[in-house]
Amino acid sequence: MALYSISGSRAWGDLQGYLTSSVSADYRGEKINLSSIRNLAYDPDPAVRKDAYEAELACYDKIKDSVAFSINSIKLEVINAARLRGFASPLEQNLFSAHMKRETLDALLSSMNDHFDIFRRYLKIKAKALGHKNGLPWYDLFAPMGGIDQKYTVEEAKTYLLGIFKTFDKDLHDMVERAFDEAWIDFYPRDGKRGGAFCAGLGAHRQSRILTNFDGSFSDIVTLAHELGHAYHNLNIQDHRPLNNNYSMPVAETASTFNENVIMNAAISSAASDEEKLALIESQLMDVTQIICDIYSRYLFETSVFENREQEFMQADRLCELMLDAQKKAYGDGLDHDALHPYMWLCKSHYYSTRSFYNYPYAFGGMFARGLYAKYAEEGDAFVPTYRKLLYNTTIASVEDAAMVAGIDLTKKDFWDKSLESYKENVDEFERLVNKLYK
């Protein structure tokens, strides 16, 4: 299967990557690449955000049929490979590869379902503040709020991250410094470059390589912290033998999202004004809403794709229907159903490999990291060795056994409930600040 995939699933995945990195969007009389147009979703000007959203959707029409062939072909290969290997479904194979029990996934998804109202409430508060009556339109999902207008240079981003990480762990601080000084990071968007961000470990060199599309926003600093968390995870497993240096998908997002918690909580606690505090809390809520609502929509979408693929070839319009249905179920009345994003299946590279269901691990990582950060807040510096031991164990133990290093039972819904319910206070504070500043 690995040999066949070179001209099969990997080739189809390369096609999606090529098309999304080379397609141009027609924006206000100019042609710009997809990464740049998507970055405009964070622009402070509402007209820019809406125009960019419309230009983004329009550009997908140029490539949607070709990319539809990609996702159909890849998913059918995954279905057939899972069956040939004796698994009942791609999800069963995924959980086996993830060294994770179905009880853990069920507990996580059940808890997410029970707590959607927290994040829909945040979306409706934001929608009202921005003048929308029927929920938040997609093009304002990432609209900045509050008073952080500052743009950061790469050098300023480095200084900011080092200043915070030095209070957590010297090894993390020193690794981040090396990442900047030794050019581990490809920062800026450009023609032919993929969107998003990722980190790849280079174990033989005891280094990592990071891709971002940095444009200087505070969100980009959080993204850097996230990807550097992956590098820190790599740092903590580098002394394993070569066959024991890969961690599974669910725990892959643990250190990255923990880093986000370190950055965001430090920034919020030192906010100099209500405007700055609102901007930081809103950024945090924006991110967690992505890993709860949006990730759940992606899980629902991929599930429906696998359920339908054996019976039908799904044309682009059918895939858009499935995506819209998933978004409506996950976001509920938090978003305006007349302004969603039907092409999220096309632009997300996670769908275009045989590593299926690369969605729920983000929610797992986010909520697991939230629980771990709560332990750090309680225990202080004494928690750091436990955290590093947990990361070390992620390549040689099941997800559940690794978590038990910190005394956490992941199969119990109450752990996930506690992590999610902790965001109620953030939404309360967000509403208070919005009511004060957006009269």
Could you list some keywords that capture this structure?
Neurolysin, domain 3, 3-stranded mixed β-sheet, 439 residues, mainly alpha
What share of residues are in beta strands?
under 5%
Taken from the alpha-carbon principal axes, the silhouette is: globular
Strand order of the largest sheet: 3-5-4
Helix fraction, binned, reads 55-70%
User: What would CATH call the class?
Assistant: Mainly Alpha
Structural domain tally = 1
Residue-averaged pLDDT: 94
Described by strand count, sense and barrel closure, the largest sheet is: 3 strands, mixed
N-to-C series of helices and strands: HHEEHHHHHHHHEEEHHHHHHHHHHH
**Low-confidence runs of at least 5 consecutive residues:** none
Overall CATH architecture: Orthogonal Bundle
Can you count the beta strands? 5
Helical element count? Answer: 21
The structure class reads: mainly alpha
Describe what this molecule looks like in 3D.
The structure is a single chain. The strands form two sheets. The protein has a three-stranded mixed β-sheet with strand order 3-5-4, with helices on one face. It has a single domain (2-437), classed as Orthogonal Bundle (Neurolysin, domain 3), CATH 1.10.1370.30. α9 packs antiparallel against α10 and α13 (254-269) packs across α17 (360-379). It is built from 21 helices and five strands. The protein is mainly α and 439 residues long. The protein is 63% helix and 5% strand.
